[in-house]
Amino acid sequence: MKISYKWLKEYVDTTKTPEELDDLLTFSGLEIEGVEKVETIKGGLEHVVIAKVVTCEPHPDSDHLHITTVDVGGDRLLDIVCGAPNVAAGQKVVCAMIGTQIWTSETEHFEIKKSKIRGAVSEGMLCAADELQLGNNHDGIMVLPDDAPVGMPAKEYFHVEEDYTLEVAITANRSDATSHIGVARDVVAVLNTREHAGVKIKWPETLAEIKPIRNDNPISVTVERADLAPRYSGLTIRGIEVRESPDWLQNKLRTIGLRPINNIVDITNYILMEVGQPLHCFDADKIKGNKVVVRTCAEGTKFTTLDGVERTLSEKDLMICNEEEPMCIAGVFGGLDSGVTMATKNVFIESAYFNPVSIRKTSKRHTLKTDASFRYERGCDPNITLWAIRRAAYLIQQLAGGEICGELVDVYPTPIEKAEVEINFQRIYDLIGKEIPLEAIRTALTSLDIEIVKEDSEGMLLRIPTCKVDVYRECDVVEEIMRIYGYNNITFDERLNSCLSYGEKMNPRKVQNIIANYLTDNGYSEIMNNSLTKSAYFENNPDFDANRNVVILNPLSKELNVMRQTLLYCGLECIVYNLNHQIHDQKLYEFGRAYFCNKDQEENVTKRYTEVQHLSIFATGAETGESWMMKSAATDVFHLKSHVMNILRRLRIPMGRLQVVPASEHYYLEGLALVFKDSKKQLVSFGQLNRETLKKMDCKQAVFYADFDWDLVLKSMPEKEVTYAEVVKFPEVRRDLAMILDKKTTFAEIENVARNTEKKLLKRIGLFDVYEGKGIEPGKKSYAVSFILQDKDKTLNDKQIENVMAKLQKNFETQLGAKIREA
User: What pLDDT score was predicted for residue 591?
Assistant: First the structure.
């Protein structure tokens, strides 16, 4: 956003140079990206002079060109070929001599050179008003009054002024600085706080009150969508004269890069840049039924905007309508047939406060970025709409005449009050890192129009102006104080205090890197997804509570309107994207957080939200690619399980504390979970995703998924270091059992029974055969299981081995209903 140096000084009395203001504002949190010297007319009309046409003859080889001789106040007359239909001898004109740069836009220009036009020498150009940015007329060359002095530089004749512009980088939280007065407020605050200047903002003149002169057909207003238009103000003025703006107004707008149009439109743009409140003027005679209705339109309604483009409206777009049809996209762009033209005699001025989220979505939906939408979507001041209308009415009466018709309309059903914030001096000092003078705090706050309601020895009660939409907490106020006081004025002690600490557990980042390296070494690729996702994933979902969604206040779109409760859906989006690009074999993993809202903790903000770190692993397609040595093999749940178990072993998670249970998540077709026996907390679940989940994501390929509660994994890691022992000298003994079991019995259940039966001598359990079919009754299956026994102190004898196997056999029969098959 461009700020004019001269314009800014109308509101704050300062002798600071543009370069000094650059440093002052940048180091107070309002970054200046550059300072540029400008003229009110691009190029400053260099090499352009007032001239007199001495002779004018038709060109012998053209039916519309003329050969002229022109007196520019020099030693000789210039020969210039002119194509304007109104050129004639004796006229006072504007002549661009050789070397003049004619600007056709902000970035493009061409240079006047000596040339031949159909054989005739031309040493310059006689200019129309629009060619020199002196107006919009292109019917012919500019013809000046007879008393215009020949040879006078056009810069002097047209009072071209020089100025400096400061390019201000407006961040999303500084909607209060989107105007000259907004920037002036910061300048005043800094000068008063740091230099004790004692300056105040000089507010411009307005009408003290709106007094209707006439009452014939004023425009009435109905607001149907008060949620999208919390405040809507309007005023009718009749009997105006639309014409070009005076030079002072045109020059101000040109300086900051705006093109003057006419006095009415220029006034609205002027106030927008002055105070940051967008205004819109309607031709009152085009408002059918003398009624403005603020509402939405039906989905698919066609509407032609000011740029001549027909747009299709959404039912969510707020529109300013008359009794029959829409006239303007609220807060974004005007309509083709309702704006002010040179023939307009009566106007209706709109000054409103629109819902920032609604404006931003509409602006994005129609790819329309305007000065008005830029401010509305960041949050304008809802309590300045009437001041802006009074200012507009004052300027219109000064520059266009007219009489106020009817009372000022102000639809404001639920006034937006100033926020009250309590601050504590000690917390301010703690946050800043330094105890700053209390008088500096008072000066900074009052200079920013923050009202001190009450003050005692411990702190203050403040009332925040509604223009500062992003200041509503104590820490926000501290930020305001710090930037005005000056970040550079916060000194640091040269001492460095440090505290050496030693932790038994491994650094969590190092643990994560170990597992990431393991997965990468085994062919997995790490992915990083956005923590924002769409709420539709968690609605009517048995595994997630939609009421626990962390909802985004100003979402970019409905696809990114909540924080994710799981890494599952983001990972599946990646898989589907890759499948659509013909990448069928995928092994992915992601470390990331899941977010939950605890609605029962409304009073305690630190407990209201919960973040849980997860590790998610995905596998789909082939486990191994095609090779001349082996056939391609599809991945399955057992490949995934092997990686899950290897991760737990690598981190030395005590497997004896865990038990295998069916996964409770409904998104698995078949899934298992490892939970702690004592706390019943789930450490990890894994399995194949069911068809419903895959269908919802439009995934046509089987996907296997594992989800670790990574925070719980880190807590479960043993604190003791790895100890090393001598290899056991005594031999292992293997015994096998073949058992007929119910088909639903899992190997995990067998393993649990075995380890609970023999904890000292049983070292390993293995499943080496599963059989169903001939000789096995329906609903049953045969498991062949190996048991490795070992005593570290002595060689096991047959009696010890037989006792262990007998206990195992008995418990399998009683607990699992097993039937031991004879060899």
Answer: 97
| 667-726 confidence digits (pLDDT tens) | 999 899 999 988 999 999 999 999 999 999 999 999 999 999 999 999 999 887 778 888
d(CA 321, CA 287): 8
Give the 3-state secondary structure of residue 749: helix
HEC secondary structure over 683-711 = EEEEEEECHHHHHHCCCCCCEEEEEEEHH
CA dist 6 and 39 (Å) reads 12
Helix (H) or strand (E) holding 580: helix 568-580
CA atoms within 13 A on the CB side of 605: 1
CA distance 325 to 334: 13
Coil, helix or strand at residue 788 = strand
Read off φ and ψ for residue 657, nearest 5 degrees: -85, -5
The first and second tokens of residue 116, run together, are 């031949």
Nearest to 209 by CA among 391, 412, 413, 402: 391
Distance of alpha carbon 145 from alpha carbon 376, whole angstroms: 45
**Angle CA 468–469–473, to nearest 5:** 90
Which of the residue ranges 62-71, 135-144, 223-232, 568-577 would you say has the lowest mean pLDDT? Answer: 135-144
Q: What is the pLDDT of residue 643?
A: 96
pLDDT confidence tier of residue 358, bands split at 50, 70 and 90: very high
d(CA 538, CA 515): 29
Query: Token pair for residue 792?
Result: 């570290």
Residue 47, phi-psi category: left (phi > 0), alpha (psi -120 to 50), beta (remainder): left
Instruction: Tell me how far apart the alpha carbons of residues 12 and 570 are, in angstroms, rounded to a whole number.
Output: 52
At residue 500, φ and ψ (nearest 5 deg) are -85, 130
Which residues in 635-742 belong to E strands, given as ranges?
658-662, 668-676, 682-689, 703-709, 733-742
Q: Which of 680, 675, 241, 188 is nearest to 445 (CA)?
A: 188
For 450, what's the count of Cα atoms within 13 Å in the CB-facing half-sphere?
30
- Return the H-helix or E-strand segment holding 95: strand 92-97
Q: Cα(395)–Cα(391) distance, rounded to whole angstroms?
A: 6
- Taking 3-state DSSP, the helix, strand and coil percentages for the chain, each rounded to the nearest 5, stand at 30, 30, 40
Residue appearing with tokens 């509407």: 303
Q: Which of 641, 692, 640 is nearest to 668 (CA)?
A: 692
Residue 742 CB: number of other CB atoms within 10 A? 12
* CA gyration radius, the chain: 39
Q: How do 48-58 and 32-39 pair as beta strands?
A: unpaired
Given a contact cutoff of 8 angstroms between Cβ atoms, the answer to whether 232 and 382 are in contact is no
HSE-up (13 A, CA, CB side) for residue 536? 9
> Residue 505: CA atoms inside 13 Å, Cβ hemisphere, count?
13
* Greatest CA separation for the chain: 133
DSSP per-residue letters across 316-363: T-EEEE-SSSEEEETTTEEBTTTS--TT--EEEEEEEE--HHHHHHHH
Residue 409: alpha-carbon gap to chain centroid: 34
**Alpha-carbon span 611 to 595, nearest angstrom:** 5
Q: Quick one: which of 785, 778, 782, 779 has its CA closest to 770?
A: 782
Cβ within 8 Å of residue 62, ≥6 positions away: 118
Tens-place pLDDT, residues 467-523:
999 999 999 999 999 999 998 888 877 777 777 666 666 789 999 999 999 999 999
| Of the candidates 223, 243, 345, 233, the residue with the CA atom closest to the CA atom of residue 284 | 345
| Per-residue confidence (pLDDT) for residue 726, from 0 to 100 | 86
pLDDT, mean of residues 797-812: 92
The mean per-residue pLDDT over the stretch 753-770 comes to: 90
